[in-house]
Amino acid sequence: MTGAGAGPEGLAGAGGAGQPDEQPEDQTEKQTEKQTEDHEGYSGPAVLVLGGHEVRVEVDLRGFFQPIDGRYHWYGRIAADPRVTGLVEAGARTADLRTPAGSATGSLGDPDPWGRYRVAGTGAPPFTAA
């Protein structure tokens, strides 16, 4: 009986079932690299116009063209700033974001554990996109 049970296990151990698990991992790494290359972005100073107030902030932004809906999607984080937190807590969620390369309107999400707000928008981004 031991010989009958060892056959299938021996095949799996010889790479029969182990190989397919390795291949998607390699493909995933290649896809991640490609997605990173496709994303454009900007990191640096910006002005956030939120609730009628202008606040100088630091941002880290990225974006990509989404072929499914045919629009450019941009997103990122605004560095923690007590003025931004106060304005968002007062109800402001839509903002204009200006960088040296341009401006765009986006919406602010909830803060992360470090107090940085997520900002996202569609259409022309507030940075140069190729």
From TrEMBL:
Q: Which segments carry the region annotation Disordered?
A: 1-45, 98-130
Question: Where does the DUF4873 domain lie?
Answer: 40-128
> Which regions are flagged for Basic and acidic residues bias?
27-41
Pfam families in the record, alphabetically? DUF4873 (PF16170)
Bias-annotated ranges (Gly residues) = 1-18
Name of the protein in question: DUF4873 domain-containing protein
Name the source organism: Actinosynnema mirum (strain ATCC 29888 / DSM 43827 / JCM 3225 / NBRC 14064 / NCIMB 13271 / NRRL B-12336 / IMRU 3971 / 101)
